[in-house]
Amino acid sequence: MSNTKLRSAKFSINELVKKSRVHAYASKADMRHMLFRSIKDLHELGYKVGHIKGLQAKHIYALVEHWKAQGKKPATIKNYMSKLRHTASLLNNPNLIKQDNAAYNIEKRAYSSTINKAIHQIDLSKCTDPHIRLSLEGQVLFGLRREESMKFIVSMAHEENLIHIMPSWTKGGIGRSVHITNDAQRQWLNKVAQFVQSGESLIPQDRSYKQHLNHYQAQTKLMGVGKLHGLRHAYAQRRYRELTRFYDPKGQGFICPVDGGKQYKLMTHEEKMIDRRARQEISQELGHSRINIVKIYIG
User: 92 burial class (0-12, 13-18, 19+ CB within 10 angstroms)?
Assistant: First the structure.
């Protein structure tokens, strides 16, 4: 009976995720996975929920305490809570989960990083698929997320000195515009325009996104690399140096803290003003709504 209820609950999750306003495939997959995990954990705790609509406020408290006992990091728990809040919104059940994580005694997430995860060098000659190679180049040159780089349609995106990242390509369903600042970016845009037909993305016409994602992962494995999120880190660090140089009256600019540059607390008032302006622009270019998240990339 328990297995039947678990299967029923998972089916209801699938149906709910289909209605989600989240656009990106990876984000929907994450939401589905986290909700599956939550329901399974509840069953193991003795709460035999048979439908996602059966979630109650007491279940959220039980899950949080269970995840703490498992040793899950605060950042991981907060990701689960974010998905559960979106679930409460879809279920039109605002009383299901409190908006403040402090109500569950979840520690604050530390966005600053002491480890430099940037990938500044990558041998693209090892990539045998031209679609994926172009996507990887887009990640390097514009700091695009993996999904954005594959769904990129140059005929829709390129406008004079800007590229427009469409909401349906992004993780959070929020579009953005990124300035073209160098010749390498322009050359890449021209190369993509010559490679694909107008209106086509960097996903071959005979593949679905999921099929192409599997192929992407196989290609990067052959290249001896992983998810390559470090390419976004490298982009952010380069932009920090460029932007601080642009705003610095002396024209010198700063190295970012995670790469050995001066820590914020040691900066002068003028340096802090330059630092903040650079972070604001980088936050917008990367598609983050909060400037604090930029700490993950540059310290």
Answer: exposed
For residue 242, the SS3 value is helix
Both 212 and 262 in one domain: the answer is no
Q: What is the pLDDT of residues 138-152, one digit of tens each?
A: 999 999 999 999 999
Radius of gyration from C-alpha coordinates of the chain: 22
pLDDT of residue 106: 86
Question: Average pLDDT over the chain, rounded to whole?
Answer: 90
pTM of the model: 0.71
- 100: domain range? 2-104
The answer on 172 and 78 residing in a single domain is no
Instruction: Kindly list the distances between the CA atom of residue 45 and the CA atoms of 57, 78, 266, 291, in Å, as whole numbers in the listed order.
Output: 15, 20, 49, 38
Last residue of a domain, one of 187, 222, 257: 222
Say how far apart CA 31 and CA 17 lie, in whole Å.
Answer: 7
Q: For a pLDDT cut of 90, what percent of the chain falls above it?
A: 61
Residues 174 and 208 occupy one common structural domain: yes
